Sequence to fold (1520 residues):
Amino acid sequence: MKKNKIVGQSVRRLDALEKAMGTATFTTDVTLPGMLYAKVLRSPYAHARIVSIDTTEAEKLSGVKAVATHKNTSREMFNTAACMVLTVKELEPVWDQNIFNQELRFMGDEVAAVAAVSEDIAKEALKLIKVEYEELPAVFDAFEAMKPEAPVLHPNCHEGKNIPGESVKIPYGDVEKGFAESDIVIEKTFKVPIQKQVQMETHAAVAQVGVDGKVTVWSTTQTPHPTRMILSKVFGIPGSKIRVLNPPYIGGGFGVRIGCSAKAEPIALALALLARKPVKFVYSRKEDFSASDTRHGGFITVKLGAKKEGTFHALDLRAVLNAGAYCSFSVEAPGVLGAMGLAVYRIPNMYFHGHSVYTNITPAGAMRGYGNPQAMFPIDSVVDMMAAELGMDPMELRLKNIMKAGDPWFLPYPCGSSGLAECIEKGAKSVGWERRGKVNQTGAKKLRGFGMGVGTHVSNAAPFCVDYDNAYIAMQQDGSIFLTSGVPDMGTGTSTSLPQIAAEVLGVKFEEVSISFADTLSSPFEIGSHASRTCYAAGTAVVAAAKDLRKQILEFAADVVLKVSPEKLDIADSVVYVVGEENKSITLKELGYLAHLHLKQFIAVSSIVPPNSPPWEAHFAEVEVDTETGKVTVIKVAAAHDVGTVINPMIVEGQIEGGVLMGIGYATTEEIRFDAKGKQLHNSLHNYMLATAEDAPEIDAILVETKDPNGPLGAKGVGETGLVPTAAAISNAVYDATGIRFFEIPLTEERVYKAIKERG
Amino acid sequence: MKKNKIVGQSVRRLDALEKAMGTATFTTDVTLPGMLYAKVLRSPYAHARIVSIDTTEAEKLSGVKAVATHKNTSREMFNTAACMVLTVKELEPVWDQNIFNQELRFMGDEVAAVAAVSEDIAKEALKLIKVEYEELPAVFDAFEAMKPEAPVLHPNCHEGKNIPGESVKIPYGDVEKGFAESDIVIEKTFKVPIQKQVQMETHAAVAQVGVDGKVTVWSTTQTPHPTRMILSKVFGIPGSKIRVLNPPYIGGGFGVRIGCSAKAEPIALALALLARKPVKFVYSRKEDFSASDTRHGGFITVKLGAKKEGTFHALDLRAVLNAGAYCSFSVEAPGVLGAMGLAVYRIPNMYFHGHSVYTNITPAGAMRGYGNPQAMFPIDSVVDMMAAELGMDPMELRLKNIMKAGDPWFLPYPCGSSGLAECIEKGAKSVGWERRGKVNQTGAKKLRGFGMGVGTHVSNAAPFCVDYDNAYIAMQQDGSIFLTSGVPDMGTGTSTSLPQIAAEVLGVKFEEVSISFADTLSSPFEIGSHASRTCYAAGTAVVAAAKDLRKQILEFAADVVLKVSPEKLDIADSVVYVVGEENKSITLKELGYLAHLHLKQFIAVSSIVPPNSPPWEAHFAEVEVDTETGKVTVIKVAAAHDVGTVINPMIVEGQIEGGVLMGIGYATTEEIRFDAKGKQLHNSLHNYMLATAEDAPEIDAILVETKDPNGPLGAKGVGETGLVPTAAAISNAVYDATGIRFFEIPLTEERVYKAIKERG
Fold:
């Protein structure tokens, strides 16, 4: 009997039809009888204290059912992002937020919220809230904020002025000795911008409180179970009495709603508890920009030492990131920046030191790549500079120095596989690397250039943070398979790839597997969709559960029906059969009913701690720089990715293509800046220069499959790697085209034009 | 540390507030965007064939979105009740129904259904459906239907004309020899009426079909998982892609919606598939009466032989029940009638033979007691007659002959406990049995009398039918407990008693336990709420899961925190402590978070086959008969029940009180009769004489706790026993008052008055 092959097939996404036909339900679609609508009053100052607040007039407005402020809501401190508790004991979460703070630390900080029978009435009520503010001195720059004269944003910063938690230090070998032994040393400081996730659906939550005190929250969270933990902490309600679910779709996330969806869930729930009615709170796009986490901007210093034959010998990496007003992931992000930055090349002596600094701007938190893009633009810029110093082809230099499977490294899990060399070879071939330096006519106004960048990443958060997973699987009485995982599908296709994995392991037909997930009601604890872990960690749990189920099925079939030892049995296309005697068989449909008559359902719950595996990636960019305008046009990106086993090629390619485009935006256009008062200058889809389909070049997503020893059926994480090396590749290509090295991104027309002018 | 005692406490029902405040959601409250409303066209004949059906005009009516008939819906045969598949192979389910049949077998049988944007339009459309019927000869009486000249209602009745499936035969000892050896033999035939469940909420279902083909059905079913099985069979959709749930409340059931809620689910789903919109179908009360299962009426013959010293020596029991038009539970119900009828007294020689017969009336199916009340009214009438023959007190005669724990019996599980003697003693004391024969003044017009009846029952359906259970339990990261069971709470309080059981086994605070159930999404297979099994079987699964969880918790606490062997630990009030060194402890709240940091959630899934245990009951009735009107007024019922361990006294007492009132209705007023054309004469709350609060006498629910070796913490089933002996007790009391023995119930004024008149 031919075994059905499901993994590796681009089966149609199970969410495709619903999304294409407009019947897919998102949080904004959730409507409950008697539901109220919430609006939030936000701080007009970057730093201020509420002297007094009077909500009397607002409460009197007809249709207003509740007004929430710091005076009538929980004072329990929390952290909207704190679902990934660091397993490093010293780095426990920084609890520095209330739902409503009396001290307001950025323009947009929550002052009060109104629940009313319509959005218009809620908006009207906001105007009736009387607030007396005492404006306080504000600081916006990370280095300024560390100075003794800077205002204190949060107490208990024991490591340094306004530094949340502990800084991250990674020593490896002897870095001082390493530089002393190096023939060439290059040290440069880079500046990286504040980028925004701009996920399709803004933050939203609907909260309902039963008269029995049980709570249900539909929301855009990437992490329903951790959101439940946070709500349980903030509101003092047993976790078992809170249900958090996606409804079931989420319009993207890119890290911005790990933990809560900004404060959508706690604000909706606070109002629902006050009003005793269901409350819906949907962020406007402007609120989403100004009052939810961004990608950390900051300064990164790279010092690289090499032997003259081209062997890297020492690397010192320093990062100072701008945390903004609250901690969010500002302790963890520098850690990933350092760990990933140091993991790409085989260097015997390394050191990393990084931390964040509180300032009075919108908080920074998790965003796809989570520190890694901030590391690789500087590192791979310096690697290119080193190649120039050494007179080597940058590709050759990288091939000489990259990590290989089995190489010793400092990370607490083995480098079990690496297809990076193959990625480099295939990417170079795709972009036509041999054309480098040969394409520009003398005196041309539009100059072509080629650049590359490489990188790795994690496939989940372990062992740095709490990361474990459970999956539940049960065979129904007709042999069909029901699977639950608590992990959301925020558009990444896991509601298709997890059933593919289950079908493959079990040998059942793909269409017989159904998944229901992202609901704390139906699933055991699951830490959520982040850290490229969704398919990897939830998939590992699915493999474990499916293997257990398969064993139960085969043992029953062997014992009750086929009268052979279970080892002689296999399952294909939902039929259990004796290997080599394929006429001896029973369909799972028959078997499921037989088990029912034998008073048995096959059920398995897996509990796993996912190992970690490094995905690898090499991006090759061809760009064209218009020397008369400074415009950088990306012509092509060849994005070769070692993703381990490919579960669903269409989905993996989609992840890479999306990542590359986000990387192009990071490299060329996207940035949030602030005015002198701390007001965002880029807070809408009009003035934030998001890379869109129009900006998309030819993207060649090349899949390199190293069957990873750890991942589910050999798969690795792929959600974040798509943009890790893109900025370096583009900046290196701009250098190749123009000879100008940029130490700051994005490479806007203004910046590039100015540099060309300055050079003359 | 004092162990918290939760079991045995009348903790407030968790559903109480929602129900009292009107916020509890029932199926009729489910409203979905774009939802349509269904109405059904029903057969105007007791027996007819559809010659032609034309729905063209109905489909043209504005607002009509689908019309379903036998021509455009599934032809897969099913049985709305077939969730309890008999484990006896010969008695597999009788599949004798389609959603819409072309041959109509009772007045009310489904001809067609319309889905429209309003109920009014749907009703209007029914009038536009043109049907040509060919009327067929009909038969209404069970004995008539077995005659050669009777019409054939269903093919494949191999045992005899119109007998569905196999008749049930229970041989035990040598009954012929037993009668030969008896000194006194009494043989009488009794007639029992068709009773209706008249549960508060009529049948209802809302079906939704996603564009991805996944189905969700909210309904009043008592058995979500088996309903899913039935829908999967009928519609050919994998079970894994169908979700069935209560929303979450059900307004009663009493057996009438084991399997599907009549045809609410298949009709709603058939229309939803045709219309591609959600469809709600709510039965009117008249439809609920005429087109959903009743309690079987029929004829029962009891032949009892006794030795002259009062020892029962032989019992022959025969039953011919009226199945109505479709089989439903008509194969199983005679089995329970026989098995329970033969289980009460210790008699060495017994025989039972019983079966049902198809007729052209509303089908009979499951109703609280399920054959047992039909057995015990006749048997305990004859026992009273035997006492009179022997010149013994009926109570003494019973005490001499009842089964005792450990006695040999014919049932396939041991009689592990019996508190029946204690029930008799306590019931007699409560009613004042010593007043019997001493209360009536000579010549009084209103005569008082005392009577008693006894009985047993099952605590679940095993091993006769498929009966197994699973429960899922998980500790949350704050130490609170989340429990799921697929079993509905149809008003019986299991959403309170199951958490009580979990809290007791675990040693956690009751308020830290939350249950979510009756949803195939969140729970493994569960066969549903019936056969008095809800608290018993689901509770057994909860005990098993909670014990497993407790073990995991103690092992972790012992290993990671308290550094002792797990055997030295106990849990009380949500604190794990070292027994004898109670300062060495950790709260479950701390432990839950610690486990999280150790990458672990405590999760347990239990899979159990519930054993069975006999509950026992003795009812003592005091009645007053008005000899001038024939009116029987029940003054008091002392209902003493051996329920094993009492989980929640308030809930158990409520079950008994409700059962007694239903038994009073069975005994005195409730009956559905049909006219000569097969039309129900009692099909509304106006003309069906339901026993209501106004008819309730003083009811003394007496709880006798024999700690049963099998049940969860020693508990037994209690859902059905409340009405098993009531009719016998009342009829015996009427005999005691009047000297008239009745062989037919209900004891309506008309019947009693006529008997008094006839006697003169």
The longest strand of chain B covers residues 312-324. Residues 468-608 of chain B form a domain with the Aldehyde Oxidoreductase; domain 4 fold (CATH 3.30.365.10). Chain B has three domains: 34-136+203-283, 294-462+612-759, 468-608.
